[in-house]
Amino acid sequence: MDKYYLYPATLFASDTSYEVTTVLGSCVAVCLWDNVRQIGGINHYMLPLWNGQGLATPKYGNIATEKLLQRMLELGCSKSTITAKIFGGGEIIDTHISSFNIGERNIQIAKETLADLNIPIVGLSVGGKLGRKIIYYTESGKVLHKFIEKTLGN
Question: What is this structure's pTM?
Fold first, then answer.
């Protein structure tokens, strides 16, 4: 099985077997899975909404999930057989320092976008104060994840 590391502000989908790894803090990853075609895809976005200025990239949740769905459809998936899992959105920045609530807003845009697209959410691990490392298997839709403690350098 091939391996792929998913960087922030990107997405990945494949009709062949891949193990896709990414690390999330306040970012969110949406994993899409077509159980009929057995094709999976994942995005990793940093901010909830594109404001209409500059490029509409997968850096933004509302763009990333729609672009991922588009890629899945290009691979032959049917929207009616796609389900979603959501990961991340931790508030890893002390809320005394930042009141932007990026993690929570990223989670909310994932839920809203998937609802608008009529894609059911079948699993999630979101929020909290810790980061997450996830490993997504495109051929099965299986996701492994573990929590990551924030560590300080020497």
Answer: 0.93
Q: Which residue has the tokens 């931790």?
A: 90
Please give the Cα distance from 1 to 19 (Å, whole number): 7
Q: Within a domain: residue 153?
A: no
Q: Note whether 64 and 48 are within 8 A (CB).
A: no
Task: Take residue 90 and report the two structure tokens written for it.
Answer: 């931790």
CATH for 81:
3.30.1330.200
* Separation of alpha carbons 83 and 114, rounded Å: 9
Backbone angles phi, psi at 93, to 5 degrees: -95, 130
Stretches where the chain sits below pLDDT 70 are: 93-99, 150-154
Residue pair 134/126 in contact by the 8 Å Cβ criterion: no
Q: Could you list the residue range(s) of the whole structural domain that residue 44 is in?
A: 2-148
Residue 57 resides in a domain: yes
- Residue given tokens 């699993």 in the structure block: 123
